[in-house]
Amino acid sequence: MGKICTLHLLHTNDIHSQFEKMPKIATVLHTYREQYVAQGDSVLTLDIGDHADRARMKTEASFGQVNVAVLNQSGYQYVTIGNNEGVTLPKQKLDHLYDEAQFKVIVGNIRDNSNGQIPNWAVPYAIHEEAGLTIALLGVTAAFTDFYHMLGWDVQDGIDLVREQVKKLRPRVDAIIVLSHLGLHADIEMATQIEGIDVILGGHTHQVLEQGQLVHDTLIAQAGNLGNFVGHVTFMFDLDQKVVIDKSAEVFATEKFSDDAAITALIAAAKAEAVEVLSEPVAQLDQPFAVDWDRETPFGTFLAASLRAWTGAEIGLATGGLLLTPLAAGKVTRHDLLACLPHPIKPCAVTLTGAELLAVLECALQPEMIQRKTRGYGFRGQVLGWMGVDGIEVYYQTSEADGQTKWQISRVEAGGQPLDLLREYRVATIDMFMFNPIFPQIREGKEAQFFLPEVLREVVAKTLSDPQLIADSHIPRYHGQPS
Asked: In the chain, where are the structural domains located?
């Protein structure tokens, strides 16, 4: 056996601005880096995207700059971006997110659509040389094509790009490591289709692969989400024979480690600054907006009306579960709206027939749908809640059967006229419904149009200044009676 190089990969993914976990994560990184270097090994520290999440106040107030400061202080060397960096930040904010970064951002499948070039804050791949080992590090992120395009980016399929890069780089390097924010299914597909990848460090789908997953000769590792684990891959290479001897994966539970004092202090300072920034008033309410997920409320109606006004549609739909906290009468601040609407969800509009719209309403009005627990697709709430509407009047009856209440729509009016089941209507709603199969009629609707870069709270910050919209939201849109 020739000279052996042992490389340790310490990796995180999908932290989602859980800053309270970062002092422990930093301790893990510092502790094991010191240990491995002391025994003569090499170490790389990497993050696989979605470190930032605008649902958290420190990220929202700084548009992710605090995340970069934390990554710097923690000692990260290479990162890629996730969809929370890529499609929830306006282009001008993402263009300057990494101005102070002390690490390299690797993402090869995003280009500026104004010039077709990789953005100046990223590299398509990196060549890392250490202890006689030459490593190619590739980075790819999930291709939310429409969103990226509307924000000013072009995005390529990540697997296709990796295939091209591996073909080009494999003869020049000893090992290839992919930082993949594509999700486990895509990582398995990549490992199956592309020969020559040694390790895929994954994210996006939040799996904890405690010992990794070996697919052909490729080791896939992923460390869950929210900072509960730091992943560790050990990679042993015979420098003389130019062969991999061994590779293995494990995870370290961060709860077992103490807090890093420097990170703790940095986060405390960031919180104080965020409180000040988000105290900015955006509106003044004459009366409160209450939240109730189980029934129609003026606030739910107002959200639907806001979407309708923002998109210029005929009808607005928005589930009440999007509203997490009430708004009190008086001054409304950016922090109030962040607490109420923390989701990175954006407005959209889609064309539905009257029959399709009726099917959505009939489904949405059932108790099991109102109480349906929902996760993912940007949703940060608990249940879907009552479907707020604007531009239509819904008449329904309730009945009791086997101890359960059922709702049945008897009539829908749009613009004062009976809903025409054959006519097409332009309907404003939320982008979540274009990806989540909860309402298939919306997901499969025609002429989908997304409105970027504003997220829901930024829309509401504008529409709260419309007194007529607020006044009209107190007029019921649903009219029900027992059968």
From this structure: 4-274, 281-482
CATH code for the part of the protein at 4-274: 3.60.21.10
Q: Contact at 8 Å (CB) between 437 and 256? A: no
**Residue 312: both structure tokens together:** 């210029």
Q: What is the DSSP string of 36-52?
A: HHHTT-EEEEEE-S---
The span from the CA of 117 to the CA of 235, in Å, is 33
Q: CB-hemisphere CA count at 13 Å for 478? A: 23
417: Cβ contacts below 8 Å, ≥ 6 apart: none
Fold match, 4-274 / 281-482: no
CA atoms within 13 A on the CB side of 217: 12
The DSSP secondary-structure symbol of 446 reads E
Q: What is the DSSP string of 358-410?
A: HHHHHHHTSHHHHT-B--BTTB-SSB---EEEESEEEEEEEEEETTEEEEEEE
Classify domain 281-482 by CATH architecture: Alpha-Beta Complex (3.90)
Q: Which residues pair with 104 in a beta bridge?
A: 78
Joined together, the tokens standing for residue 442 give 């919306």
Lowest mean pLDDT among 17-21, 129-133, 166-170, 292-296: 129-133
Structure confidence at residue 483 (pLDDT): 44
